[in-house]
Amino acid sequence: MVTFKIAAPPHAKVQIAGDFNGWKPEGLHFDGSPGNPAWWKHFTLRPGTYQYKFLVDGRWISDPENAHRADDSLGGLNSVLSV
């Protein structure tokens, strides 16, 4: 199981999309722990390499906690995860 996590304001609309879910944005769950608010979602992924991005309030962003990137062929970068 892989947990994707990103810091974003509690009122934000936070989603994730990647080649593991057909690039269809899925909502994340908010954990408002004091001093450590974060949005998260678990996925069960088979071994392999995956590309993904977060969608925060309608803006696509690479995972700020993951330095592995790949060209998205649209002028931006996807985050890359190897499982």
The coarse silhouette is globular
Structural class: mainly beta
Strand content: over 45%
- Count of DSSP strands: 9
Main β-sheet description: 6 strands, antiparallel
With helices defined by DSSP (H or I, 4 residues minimum), what is the helix count? 0
Low-confidence stretches: none
Give the topology string: H per helix, E per strand: EEEEEEEEE
- Helical coverage, percent range: under 10%
Walk me through what this model shows.
There is one protein chain. By secondary structure, the protein is mostly beta strands. It is built from no helices and 9 strands. It has strands at residues 2-6, 14-18, 26-27, 29-31, 38-43, 49-56, 59-61, 69-71, 77-82. The strands form 2 sheets. Strands 2, 3, 6, 7, 8 and 9 form a 6-stranded antiparallel sheet that branches. The chain is globular and about 35 Å long.
